[in-house]
Amino acid sequence: MRTARLRTVHPALWAGWAALAAGAVLCVIGWYGISGERYAERQLPYLASCTIPGAALIVAAAVLLTHGRSALAAARVEELYGLLVAAEPADAEEAARAAVTPVAVSGDLLMVPGGTLWHRADCPLVAGKPEAVPVDSKLVANGELSPCPICEPAEADD
After folding, report:
1. Residue 150 C-alpha from the chain's centroid
2. How many helices (H) and strands (E) does the chain have?
3. At what angle are helices 52-86 and 4-35 packed, to 10 degrees?
4. Beta 146-147 vs 117-120: how paired, if at all?
5. How far is it, in rounded angstroms, from Cα 73 to Cα 55?
């Protein structure tokens, strides 16, 4: 699914490449003309008619190519955003259930030494970490450890 904006970007890129080619050809013609003349007053017409316009076309080509690339990137981002916004969950009821389902349900509580949070054992923040140890109840009672906002272990005590 391509948007109309993607189709309008390509002419700017083609124009940029065409201007680059024309500018390069003019610079080569100007160089060739200047190289065949011995006196500066005879080189000036080649400089004015070929080299300067060729350099201007090369600069214009750089601007067109840069604009075309950034416009193309912006159009792709807009297209992806449209696809993201248009995508709806297949089953709205299942999506609502997934939002309510807790991340972790284990009754075992763990902490990482030196950390400030206590977690359920299957919390993604401590699962598989060998340094995780059982929670020291003194630290929880003193308020030195807070419950993890991800797995919400405070609900385990309720």
Report:
1. 27
2. 6, 4
3. 160
4. parallel
5. 27
Residue by residue, pLDDT tens for the chain (158 residues) are 455 555 555 787 888 889 999 999 998 988 888 888 888 888 888 888 888 899 999 999 999 888 877 877 777 788 877 777 766 656 666 666 655 555 566 667 888 888 888 888 888 888 888 888 888 778 778 888 888 888 877 654 44
- Tokens representing 60 are 């214009």
**What are the distances in angstroms from CA 149 to CA 36, 114, 125, 145?**
79, 18, 11, 12
Three-class SS state of 48 = helix
- For the chain, the straight-line distance linking the first and the last C-alpha, in angstroms and rounded, comes to 51
